[in-house]
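Sanity check record (used in CI):
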Amino acid sequence: MNISDISEKTTLHNNIQMPYLGLGVYKSKDGQEVEKAIASAFDNGYRLIDTASYYNNEEGVGNAIKNSSIPREEIFVTTKVWNDDHGYENTLKAFEISLNKLQLDYIDLYMIHWPMPDLYIETWKAMETLYKTGKVKAIGVCNCMPHHIETLVKECSIKPMVLQNEFHPRLVQEDILDFCKLHNIQMQAWSPLMRGRILDNETLQEIGKKYNKSTAQIILRWNLQKGICTIPKSVHENRIIENASVFDFELTPLEINTINRLDTNERTGAHPDHFIEHFKQKEAKSKS
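Expected output for Aldo/keto reductase:
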């Protein structure tokens, strides 16, 4: 897929358009840090900002959007409902809190952050309500396997427009990509740079030398040519600019396949079927 400009968008199955490249703000501190990062992103052509209630920076995101001269309809805002807020009524309340913090009249994409067992169906039905009332333009899920989505499709009336999963050269998941293509669900990558763990990979570095590009730029270009939206995170202007400088070259099919073969099924985060145990262990470590 040849995407040649940062302004290019994918069309979701409900005909809403979403930018291929955006700025993720996970771990960006609320206030000046996240506001400055978003202002820099806007200055360099970004129009998609991905946050979540769990990130505790929605207010800063809202301030950055409010202080921008860019028309609201040109900005695509994603936020997510956290695990503690699952359930029909809880989700509706959590949404209103996020909407108020963001100081917006609507959210472009509202997502389930993780599929809480026994609750994510009820949560999805609340999101369908928000979608039908026009408070959100699109709804999606994060950190899901095909069986989670199949259950949603069976039990609910609207299938997800977007699936946001961990995705990078060590975790390619072609089966999930095939599933998304079959069901016309847009794949979006979080942690596309594997939290920096793959930036010293020799194969990627060699490809980078050919194009005079960094390893990060090679990975992001690979994402885009596979038709995957991507949201690299950074609070540093030079990195934000670098991550957007991926539209002046094109990888060959052989190079795409070479990067595909780096897959080792390695994760930096939790597996969608075992995330509760992951977060319990994480919480226990923070208390020790």
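The chain has one domain: 9-287. If this sentence no longer matches the regenerated tokens, the check is flagged for review.
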